[in-house]
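Workshop exercise sheet. Pairs work together: one partner reads the sequence aloud, the other fills in the structure field after running the prediction. Swap roles for the next sheet.
Pair: D.N. / O.F.
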Amino acid sequence: MSSEFSSSPDHFEVRPVGWVRSPLTDRAGAPRQPDEDAPAAEVLLAPDFVPAAADLEPGMQVILLTWLHAGRRDTLAVHPRGDRTRTPTGVFATRSPDRPNPIGLHEVTLTSVTGNVLGVAGLEAIDGTPILDIKPVLGGIESR
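Structure field:
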């Protein structure tokens, strides 16, 4: 582990490995889930992390961990899907972007891999969202 980052059980640092480039520019206009017409988007990798993408290929399913930078960090309960007729629910039982640590989890399909740009389908994150990590979706007996 690099000495430039500190880590302890109650404090740690993360840094983005990339950022989302998407036509979605605000939360109000973004789909709530990827199957609700999420547009094609891209992940722009930071130059230092391009070698980490060496074995990614179009067609692969990956999980993007994001920092939902537009989310509120003081929200502990929400009306699911913003529907005020529904009973408030603790954020840990929802997919709300408003939560103590606004970490997003997005299963996407890679459509292209060119240099530091990953084309993705099924990403509902807004433009500029930091990417914390990229992990392959494991399937069946095969694993990486």
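Discussion prompt: The chain has a mean pLDDT of 86. What would you look at next?
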